Amino acid sequence: MKKIGIALIILLSVLSIVSLFYFDPIAQDNTYHNFADQREIFGIANLLNVASNLPFLIVGWLGVYMTINSKLHISEKLKMTYMIMFCGLIVIFIGSSYYHLMPNNESLVWDRLPMAVVFMSLFSIIVSEFVSMDLGKKLLFPFIVAGIASVVYWDMTEQIGVGDLRFYGLVQFLPIMIIVAILIFFKSNHKSNVYAYTYLLIAYAVAKVFEYYDAQVYEYLILISGHSIKHVIAAVGLYMFLIKKGIALKR
């Protein structure tokens, strides 16, 4: 199974990288910033899209607390990586809140940078826990640098009028495909790891659906939009991840 997984990962990586050269640069569509719920409440613009980031702060602090106090079933070798990921969640609260107060390309940079750090830290953790501890640890900082570089590159190209999201898209979606392959073809020493990451993937997929149907959800529910719900669902997935890791420790 591992050989099939490795072959699939290599194939996905090669095809994804090669495909970049078949597409012209993709600029950020300005309509991306036109969220359905733009209400100003209590003098705060886009209040619910801003406030719905609060769960990231809560889960981030909880993750930091549980990591420091050894309340998660994780290797001592991965404590730093987990700390980076959970601290990144706290920064996501700040960056995403700032972005949603003033949605534009300039503020979007500060939303995407911490997300890139969190996502690439998680990618490193999964490689460490399922494939190879040494490999995962060695890839942590190259992954994070790649994630940050993809955002910086996109921002620089937007500033010179030739916005290019291709690298950012690669860094976002190739790891997702690789993570799925890893969960299918590689085994962790603890079944709880599979369940924990499955919760995350399901939450991610559901959150993306709500993000896509932002306006339709807002039209139907009136009080809250799909984008705000997306934030909450993503945070709930991370919380379930924490709970599963904590339960594993008790066992």
UniProtKB/TrEMBL annotation:
The keyword Transmembrane helix applies. GO terms for biological process: ceramide metabolic process. GO terms for molecular function: hydrolase activity, acting on carbon-nitrogen (but not peptide) bonds, in linear amides. It is a multi-pass membrane protein. The chain crosses the membrane at residues 47-68, 80-101, 113-132, 139-156, 168-186, 193-210, 222-242. Keywords: Hydrolase, Membrane, Transmembrane, Transmembrane helix. GO terms for cellular component: membrane. It is found in: Membrane. PANTHER family: OS01G0962200 PROTEIN. This is Expressed protein. It comes from hydrothermal vent metagenome. The lineage of its organism: unclassified sequences, metagenomes, ecological metagenomes.
